């Protein structure tokens, strides 16, 4: 699967690399995509995804930097996808570390305002972008490590569990899990499958039905994350871990990853349009819109 994905990515992006990258120092290239938000909404250009590629190690650090909570808006998803495509195309890049620039938050998950009060067409476009990012991350041929340096509910948890390995900051105040039912919404089958593939069926069933957010120690206990380290050591540990993964012969690791993940990816690929239609019909229901409204109001009230 990863190979197939990679091939199609190579076709999509061939020739586009130099458009976005700038050399900042000898072995390290860093880039952002300032034009995405601006061209979509005629808004001011500010990048939400920072990529720092170290060609001496073959490791790219992809940092979400979308205050206040790194919610996955359409702009963030689009920029994230392009950055991953670009890295997938780069033969010098073998590993991606995903992290956040925000204190205490990895990602608040999908941007609820993209699903509340929006047209069916907008919801369809948004959902397609969510699918696309998951396909790229879960199906990546590169080694992917999530450096979870803060809370990571719902779509944030999906991003982390789509990586090959998860290192989380050892802070019981940080929560991670698929809490969709708490919002009155239902995580789709590919969110569920990613969770099942990570923690097994029983823990996934409890987690999904109850919409559980696990504290960092509990997340380690149920296998939702692989390792806890002090907050200031999350990124360094991710780099050390990545070096170990990159020492494995790459073709053997890639084929093994593809073998493990292909059935899950194929399931979405063969039901992609139906999944979009299902999402749009569900999310635009009056009762679901009401639940989202109440949840958003609850978030705002918490602050006061
Ligand atoms: C078929 C349908 C399937 C759909 C699958 C859905 C997947 C999802 O990912 S749905 C999103 C689920 N996410 C959450 O439930 C997280 C909600 N947020 C939080 O719990 C907290 O914000 C936090 C723990 C992530 C951070 O807490 P804190 O630092 O205290 O920040 P605030 O709560 O004050 O939030 C600041 C600001 O951001 C807004 N906001 C938070 N999360 C989201 C979000 N996911 N989408 C959009 N906006 C979000 C929040 O409302 C505040 O806004 P203002 O009051 O305007 O400042």
Topology at a glance:
Elements: H1 2-13, E1 22-23, E2 28-31, H2 35-41, E3 49-54, E4 59-64, H3 74-89, E5 95-100, E6 104-105, H4 120-138, E7 143-148, E8 150-153, H5 155-162, E9 165-169, E10 175-177, H6 189-199, H7 201-210, E11 214-215, H8 216-222, E12 227-229, H9 234-246, H10 250-269, H11 272-283, H12 286-303
Parallel strand pairs: 4-5, 5-7, 6-8, 7-9, 8-10, 9-12
Antiparallel strand pairs: 1-2, 2-3, 3-4, 10-11
Helix pairs in contact: 1-3, 3-4, 4-11, 5-6, 6-7, 6-10
This protein binds ligand LGGBLMCM.
The site of ligand LGGBLMCM has 28 residues, from strand 8, helix 11 and helix 12.
EC number: 5.3.3.8
GO molecular function: delta(3)-delta(2)-enoyl-CoA isomerase activity
Pathway: Lipid metabolism; fatty acid beta-oxidation
Q: Can you give a write-up of this model?
A:
By secondary structure, the chain is of the alpha/beta class. The chain has one domain (49-303): Alpha-Beta Complex (2-enoyl-CoA Hydratase, Chain A, domain 1). 50% of the residues lie in helices and 16% in strands. The protein contains twelve helices and twelve strands. The strands form two sheets. Strands 1-2-3-4-5-7-9-12 form an eight-stranded mixed beta sheet, sandwiched between helices. The protein starts with a helix and ends with a helix. The model is unreliable at 1-25 and 37-45 (pLDDT under 50). Bound molecules: ligand LGGBLMCM. Keywords: Acetylation, Fatty acid metabolism, Isomerase, Lipid metabolism, Mitochondrion, Transit peptide. One of its GO terms (biological process) is fatty acid beta-oxidation.
